[in-house]
Amino acid sequence: MQRIYEPADLLEAQLLLGMLQQRGFTVRLLGADLLGAMGELPAMGLLGLMVPDEDARLARQLIDEYLSATPEPCEPSNLLPVEGPWMA
């Protein structure tokens, strides 16, 4: 297994873990249990995503593509109207 990415936080870790699992990868998240001790341990490098050696290149590529994606702008016509008694 190879450590392919160090997520910034648990939210990013879970998001990327789920993305890779949906693509059929076997993925392990290391360090999630250590987050409770962050006051006593250095905060950087606790989390790590690991995949089998043969999947490392493709998994890194998918993570890079995800991280470099630009969200599409939201058109005002797609927004739900904000109405209610608080809008007086």
TrEMBL record:
Q: Which domain of life is it from?
A: Bacteria
Residue span, DUF2007 domain: 1-65
Among InterPro entries, the record links this protein to: DUF2007
Q: What's this protein's name?
A: Putative signal transducing protein
